[in-house]
Amino acid sequence: MSEQSPLILSGKTVAKATLMRTRQEVQAMLAQGHEIGLCVVQIGRCAASSIYVNRKEARAKKLGFISTTLRLPEDVSEEALLEQIDALNANDGVHGILIQLPLPKHMNEQRVLDRLDPKKDVDGFHPINSGLLSQGRGTLIPCTPKGVMTMLEHYEIALSGKHAVVVGRSNIVGRPMAQLLEKSNCTVTICHSRTTNLEAHLAMADIVVAAVGIPKMIQGEWLKEGAVVIDVGINRLEDGTICGDVDFESASKVASAITPVPGGVGPMTIATLMENTLRAAQA
Ligand code: NDP
């Protein structure tokens, strides 16, 4: 067990730095007479989604983007939504489009996301953007894993030749995370719900990224001494508190560096969305 406290990787600090960098580039574009438009599409009025949508809109406005939210009723048809997406694709004043997920059950999420103009897909979920990422030449990269890479870079965590274990293989977090780490010359293992003996994989990991959605699943005893632990999980417990997928208390006795939840990866997601919107406008 490590006697030293781990380095706490603060997403709040890195998000602030990322937003400051983005703001400088935005100011330069605005000074040249360019405008940057972001449209968030929200279907229904789910309270949790509304919080995220409002935060994104507020942050975008603060940066100087023209930020709009297209709110459609819960029972809007998929066809009507696709027509709205076509209109946003054709609108030169809109550089970034974000469809707030999850969509209502009557919609086919893949069909909806596939309809976005890949150049405006600031979430990086379109198959063209996933394909470019898998070839190592992505520009619109999913915000959460890209934000994790920004954090690792900020804290100068060495990646080349390290063994990274990513737990989770979703298109939003786990899979692109693994691709980005591999691009940075990590040797990557991807674990998922059918992985047998997760603990044996984690015991060999220099870097662990947890993106599972199970509160405090990963225990400190499973980790290698000195591992760098990135906890992407955001889980709300019955008492209303938020925790990650890693048991922070036991993991911080072993890790050399660890992200807290909240205040770790979370703030990076919105900051990276703003960065992606700027990149879409610059393209
Ligand atoms: P998904 O539910 O889409 O994916 C979860 C992944 O975990 C799947 O690949 C699943 O495997 C795997 N998994 C499930 N159970 C186990 C298990 N027992 N052992 C190993 N792997 C398992 O979730 P997301 O990727 O969207 O999100 C993951 C977490 O990250 C959630 O807590 C979410 O709230 C959080 N999140 C945080 C964000 C942030 O801004 N910080 C942004 C996005 C997500 P399989 O593929 O086999 O089903």
Summarize this entry quickly.
The protein is built from 10 helices and 11 strands. The chain is of the alpha/beta class and 283 residues long. Helix 1 packs across helix 6.
Give a structural overview:
- The protein is of the alpha/beta class and 283 residues long.
- 40% of the residues lie in helices and 16% in strands.
- The protein has ten helices and eleven strands.
- It has helices spanning 11-31, 47-63, 78-90, 109-114, 127-134, 143-154, 174-183, 198-202, 248-251, 266-282; strands at 7-8, 37-43, 66-72, 96-99, 163-167, 187-191, 207-210, 228-231, 235-236, 242-243, 257-258.
- It has a six-stranded parallel beta sheet. Strands 3-2-4 form a three-stranded parallel beta sheet, with helices on both faces. Strands 9-10 form a two-stranded antiparallel ribbon.
- Helix 1 crosses helix 6 (143-154), helix 2 packs across helix 10 and helix 6 packs across helix 10.
- The longest helix is centred in the first third of the chain and has 21 residues, at 11-31.
- It starts with 6 loop residues before the first strand and ends with a helix.
Helical fraction: 25-40%
Unreliable runs:
none
The share of residues in extended strands comes to: 15-25%
Largest sheet, in brief, is: 6 strands, parallel
Q: Could you say which small molecules are bound to this protein?
A: NADPH dihydro-nicotinamide-adenine-dinucleotide phosphate
**Count of DSSP helices?**
10
Overall residue-averaged pLDDT value: 96
> Major sheet: order of its strands?
1-11-8-7-5-6
Going by helix content, strand content and strand pairing, the class is alpha/beta
Number of strands: 11
Could you state the order of secondary-structure elements as H and E?
A: EHEHEHEHHHEHEHEEEEHEH
Radius of gyration: 19 Å
Distance between the termini: 49 Å
Structural shape: globular
